[in-house]
Amino acid sequence: xxxxxxxxxxxxxxxxxxxxxxxxxxxxxxxxxxxxxxxxxxxxxxxxxxxxxxxxxxxxxxxxxxxxxxxxxxxxxxxxxxxxxxxxxxxxxxxxxxxxxxxxxxxxxxxxxxxxxxxxxxxxxxxxxxxxxxxxxxxxxxxxxxxxxxxxxxxxxxxxxxxxxxxxxxxxxxxxxxxxxxxxxxxxxxxxxxxxxxxxxxxxxxxxxxxxxxxxxxxxxxxxxxxxxxxxxxxxxxxxxxxxxxxxxxxxxxxxxxxxxxxxxxxxxxxxxxxxxxxxxxxxxxxxxxxxxx
Length: 294
Known about the structure:
This protein is 72% helix and 0% strand.
C-alpha cells in the first residue's frame, strides 16, 4: 500500500485489507490446497507464546499471596471449572473437557484481541518488508485477526464436532448411539413400517442438528469478528481521508476518527470477551449433550 504512487480509494483500501496472505497467487478458484498463511501464523504464534506464559505461571505457583498474573490465571481456571461442572457431569470427562474449555476461551480471546491493534500497523510493516526484499508491496497482503477468517472459525467448530462424536461413542457405545440416532427425538413404533419411517425422520433430524450446530458455532464467531474488523477499517478511512487531504476544513474527520476509534475499541473489548465466552460455553453444552441419553 505504501508503495502506491497515489492514495488508494476506499474500496481499494478495504479490499486490500480483506485479502489473505496465501500460499498460492490470488485467484477466484478456491480449493483445499490454498492456505491462509497469515491466519495460521498468528494462530500458532499466539497459541505457543501464551501456552508458554501459562506454563510458567503454573510452574511457579505459590501458596502465599499470588501475583497479579497468577491471580488472573487462577480466576480463569476456577471460572471455567465451575462452568464445566455445571454442564458436563461426568467427572472423568471433565479431566479433558475443562482444560479444553480453558484453552478455547483464552486462545479465542487473544485471537480476537488482535483486532484492537491499529488497522495498518502490521500490514504496513509487512509492506515495508516486501519493499526491502525488492517485491511489489501492493501484493503484501496480511490479515491479523484469525477469527475473522471463516476457515479458522469453521475449523474450530468442526474440531468440536469431532470431540462430540467421540464422546457419543465413548459414553453410549456404538449400539447405544446408533439406537439414539434412529429413535430420537420422535421415538419409535412397534409397527415395522412406522418404525422405519420414524427412523429415517429421526436420523435426518439428528444429522441436520449436527450440521446446524457446527455451522452456527463457527459462523457466529466469524460474523461478529468480521463485522468488527470492517468497522475498524471504516474508522481508519476517516483518518486517512484527512491525512491525504491536509485540509483544515477536514479536521473534523480526524477528530471523528479519534473519538470513534476510541469508543469502538472500548466497546470491542466487551465483544471479543463475550465471543470467546460464548464459543467456550457452546462447546461445553455440545459436549454435555453428547453425554446425555435420549
